[in-house]
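Inputs:
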Amino acid sequence: MIQNILPAIYLLASVGFILAVKWMNNPATARRGVIIGEIGMLLAVIGTLLRVESNFAMIFVGIGIGAAIGAPLAYLMPMTAVPQLTALSHAFGALASALIGTAEFYLRGPHGFTMAALSLETLLGYLTTTASIIAFAKLQELMPTRPLTYPGQNFVSLGVLAAAVVVGVMMVAGTPAPWMFPVFTGLALLFGILLVIPIGGADMPTVIALLNSYAGVAAAAMGFVLDNKLLIIAGALNGSAGLILSIIMCKAMNRSFTNVLFGAFGQLQPVAAGKTVQRPVRSATPDEAAAILDSARSVIVIPGYGMAVAQAQHKIRELYDALSKRGIDVKFAIHPVAGRMPGHMNVLLAEADIPYDKLLEMDEINGDFPNTDVALVIGANDVVNPLARTDKTSPIYGTPILDADRARTVMVIKRSMSPGFAGIDNELYYMNNTLMLFGDAKNFVAGIVKELAGAH
Amino acid sequence: MQSYEFGLYVFMLAAFLGFELVKRVSPLLHTPLMSLSNAISAIAVVGGILVTGDKDATELTRWLGFTAVICASLNVVAGYLITDRMLKMFRKREPEKK
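Outputs:
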């Protein structure tokens, strides 16, 4: 009986997943999408359970443990930790695919096309697992966020990958010898580590999106191994979502995949002799900054990763309220790669209750800067560096930036003059219409808010 | 047509559909999109259930399947809940304040 309705259940679940992704295109329908996605998932799991022949207890205990860890994780985690959690969940998803592939290998010892799919599933699964764990460690700052490099690094990494592929092909082409699968697994795990170690913090949005894509493709490959179309569809949706996001991230940094993965971007640039002179900057105090904001008619706030680190989003919301109340037009300019994952800034500002129609993309807002009184940069650096437009020798040349320098006055909240993740100096700080506001983003914004309240 | 051949067509069409749909997602929602798509691909839990519950399962494959069920169901639960928690925060106009 269940054998006959199960395909229909899987079909319905597929429709649910497709609608879930479709409704994500608009904040107004997105929550509906989550619900239909959940229904699809529930249907698929119940249908599958009805088909299972043995080991019910073990399956229920497994689901129970997963839910018992997952639910508190989702509710208790602060929004600033979203990139870490995302990296961790890619690790879990990929590990699940890899383990199922391993079990299938020892259970049925498939060959031909199925074995090829199984090899792809386990290769991507295991490498994404370790890569995501390293990404997690870097985002959580358990590891240095600057790239770790050594001579011959790309040669070693690609050598490990090539060895894994060779063993994989040997397993598909003939009867696998007992040593092959464990060696294959080890090489895949090792490659994942080697892949992410040389990648710097600022490139994390691309890498997280790419790992998201890999986890999806691993799930789709599992669909081929188990001959399950629902898995193929869900995996393909996730795979293409991750791929598009990583392409968007690469474009926003004017970089290629190869450059992100093997370029070890973000090491400190060796300072050229003669350029080490301390150049003068103008700085201001919170009350001076408050006075300038008070007399402005339009303000654009440019948040960056520094805002997330300082947890300044709630204070920024207070500033937004104080300025809006005075009739000042306040907007937010969000660079696609601001933060540590795609959309990171939007989530933080939405959490602080800033209406999402005030959060504008780069292309929408860049034309507004010349008519803006104040551009307030909070914790962003490389995404507002005018060198990207002017200096052909700069490593960030050609990167699309937010044109903060074109505003009448630029104010930059920053801890010190240290360079950003790209490791290069920022011309913006030395301009005549720029004021540096040195200090912790949260405290400084709080100071401005206090001054504004007092002046009223 | 072989089953896997059929599967390749399904994969190809689903991937194109995914591209078309995701292209329309506003950058505003890129983070929730990622957590949602991660939750969706946690449908791997189905594979875990099948492997664990297989009547030919050996001790090894059962435990591998069991671990996979834990990982995948963790992702299902955490993925959907966190997506919903994030989406709840996106509001167009400020709520009325007293």
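Remarks. Residues 268-276 of chain A have pLDDT under 50 and may be disordered. The longest strand of chain A covers residues 298-303.
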